[in-house]
Amino acid sequence: SRRRHTRSFHVTGVQTCALPIFIEGWRGISHSYALVNQHQILALLDRPEVKLFHRDLPFFGTRWNEKTNSAGFDAARRARIDAVPPPDGGRFDTIYRIGYPPRGYGGDAEKIFCFNTLEYFGKPIFYDGPEAAVAHSNQRVTIVTPSNWARSAFLASGVDESRVVVVPHGVDPATFRPLGAAERLALRRQMGIAEDAFVFLNVSAMTVNKGIDLLLRAFEVVHARHPRARLVLKDHGDLYLTKAADRVAEFRAASGSARAATTILSQNVSLAGMRQIYALCDAYVSPYCAEGFNLPPLEAAACGTPLVVTAGGPTDDYADPAFALKIASRPAHYPRFGGGLAPDLDSLIDCMERLVSGRASQIDMSRGAALVRDRHSWARVADRLVALF
Q1: What residues contact 108, with CB distance under 8 A and at least 6 apart?
Q2: DSSP characters for 190-224?
Q3: Is 385 helix (H, G, I), strand (E, B) or coil?
Q4: What's the pLDDT band for 3 if we cut at 50, 70, 90?
Q5: Is 309 within 8 Å of 339 (Cβ atoms)?
Q6: SS3 of 21, please?
Q7: I want to staple 57 with a disulfide (CB 3.0 to 4.6 A). Which of 99, 121, 174, 179 is the partner?
Q8: What is the pTM of this model?
Q9: Phi first, then psi: what are they for 41, rounded to 5°?
Q10: Which residues fall within 8 angstroms of residue 1, CB to CB, at 6 or more apart?
């Protein structure tokens, strides 16, 4: 077997040895891959058994930048992320790549990992630039994917099961936590939300896989029956070309609806600001048809907000009955993309109505938020990564 290479460094005055890990990925922006990379970096920096190095990969979007697409970390955490040094010329035990397109080529290290995720059951995409054609000492690459749904999609595409491992995403309990009652009320008043309003939330790129059209159809019915219901859509308008306002306009034009009670948030906000948005709402709704993991619902649950999510997809890995209702779904094929799920409209309406009318008796968010913090922290994710590396 290959010898594990270590390097010596000092922790609190004591010399120790650590495994050098070379990460190639994105920092600074709010794209999901970049956020995962940065959260993983912070969690791994707390592990003395590894020593991190980092090289920034080029952003996929030419418009992306840290000024308008900031990841939203506070100054102290941003400084820790940025302080991870570039490679020093030594040999690495592990190379871990996390960017898009996924870089699934070999490298000069004992282990090569490539973060990749499939939302639909289809053909995986990999980077095919000049680096991919270079011969390396190790050509075997293991795919790291965040859910059992995504792993199944890779296996269905023909990838050998020994080359795909699941490492889930997590939440930062210090950031994503419930609001106090007074702060929550003050924030709702600031947004013009009545104290007795019941607010549904969706945070996403507003792409077709997110099920926004279905959500708007369901909310139309729920609002007609429960006028105090509100819908908040938070998009990533500074990062993606798809916007919530366009989705709402398209729906209203097609349906002839003129209903209000929908608030659109499009500006980039900090992670602390995202915590406020999650926590001031009464339910998070995600009727997706395809996702690789779907992290916003998990962050919302950590903030004490119950979930409505599609059954059968990646959220099955974490959607506990204490904090989640599931929308019935069936397998479906989408010609442009591949296999996914078709959430049922009537089931979505029923889940939303059960929450707004107080009939979801199994939901216990005092226990639910604690379950998320205990089971799904980034520290636990780091445990999985260290064992893998």
Answers
A1: 91, 92, 136, 137, 138
A2: HTT--TT-EEEEEES---GGG-HHHHHHHHHHHHH
A3: helix
A4: very low
A5: no
A6: strand
A7: 99
A8: 0.94
A9: -60, -50
A10: none
